[in-house]
Automatic annotation (TrEMBL):
Coiled-coil parts of chain: none
Organism: Paenibacillus auburnensis
Domain AAA: start-end pairs: 27-185
UniProt keyword annotations, A-Z: ATP-binding, Nucleotide-binding
Ranges of compositional bias, category Polar residues: 1-14
The keyword Phosphoprotein is annotated on this UniProt entry: no
InterPro entries: AAA_dom (IPR025669), FlhG (IPR033875), MinD_FleN (IPR025501), P-loop_NTPase (IPR027417), ParA/MinD_ATPase (IPR050625)
Protein name per the record: Flagellum site-determining protein YlxH
Length: 292
């Protein structure tokens, strides 16, 4: 029996309550990177699609304030975004768009920076609106901006999980490690899961992961999980040009199979995680630094 089949059985046996809507709160996942150009948004989109294909209820939230592009990668024109919700020009049901594979998402762009100056009344309205959809989800993925802005830091330190995307390039390795170092020095309870994108092969991916994990263990006393890798694949570039997720346009490609394996790895780790999920209200209160 191959590793993927073993993972499928583990996930199926341990995570049935979440799939069947057993009342568990949505797990909040922040996806970040030390630098731009590592394929973070592309990974987030296809990872979300992989989770959904495995029966999970997923909401994708484009939280990149400056360079929001999830809708572009999907070839979907979003009529509404977060701004319209904050201005009460649309409710949560209207700003959620549907992408390929039936994936619900909230487009980025304007509105994100206004969240941090909401009045108590507007904050309560925002929380109530988001909670309406969050209660029906298993996972909410936030695709953040590259690097470590103050906004990205808030996402990282407020989420249940933080996935860090890097590549084998030396600058990407250095910046990924630097991001985790800065966060860990101020917020030591944050845990990270590492993804190596655009890897030549598994050996290169593990070598990249080992460099970061060994440095973190030695100098930060921080244990970083290696979640998996995505192969360097020409189909990814072709899919971007087509504005179709590569797992949809080329489902049998190496990259598509790798992201499926990553999703299985994540679900297996999530099933074994006994940490209490805080839920969307807890996330928002931490994210916007409001007391519960």
């Amino acid at each position: 029996m191959d590793q993927a089949q073993s993972l499928r059985q583990l996930v199926s046996s341990q995570d049935s309550k979440r799939v069947s809507g057993g009342g568990a709160s949505a797990r909040i996942i922040t996806v970040c990177s030390g630098k731009g150009g590592v394929g973070k948004s592309n990974f987030t989109l296809n990872f979300a699609l992989a989770l959904k294909a495995m029966g999970r209820r997923v909401l994708l939230f484009d939280a990149d304030i400056g360079m929001a592009n999830i809708d572009v990668l999907m070839g979907v024109s979003a009529k509404y975004n977060l701004y319209h919700l904050l201005k009460r020009e649309a409710d949560i049901g209207q700003i959620i768009q549907i992408g390929p594979g039936g994936l619900p998402f909230i487009a980025g762009g304007s509105g994100m920076d206004e969240l941090f100056s909401l009045s108590e009344t507007d904050l309560n309205y925002f929380t109530t609106q988001i909670a309406q959809i969050a209660d029906t989800m298993d996972f909410i993925l936030f695709d953040t901006g590259a690097g470590l802005s103050k906004e990205t830091l808030k996402f990282i330190t407020s989420a249940d999980d933080c996935l860090v995307v890097t590549t084998p390039e030396p600058t990407a390795i250095t910046d990924a490690y630097a991001l985790m170092k800065v966060v860990h020095n101020s917020y030591p309870n944050v845990s990270f899961k590492l993804i190596v994108n655009q890897a030549g092969d598994e050996r290169e991916a593990r070598g990249t992961s080992d460099k970061i994990r060994m440095a973190a263990s030695r100098f930060l006393q921080l244990d970083i999980s290696f979640l998996g890798f995505i192969s360097s694949d020409a189909h990814v570039v072709q899919a971007v040009k087509k504005q179709v997720p590569f797992s949809v346009a080329f489902p049998n490609s190496a990259a598509a199979k790798d992201v499926q394996r990553l999703a299985l790895n994540y679900l297996a780790a999530d099933s074994a995680d006994t940490t209490k999920v805080q839920g969307i209200k807890g996330f928002i209160n931490k994210w916007l630094k409001r007391k519960q």
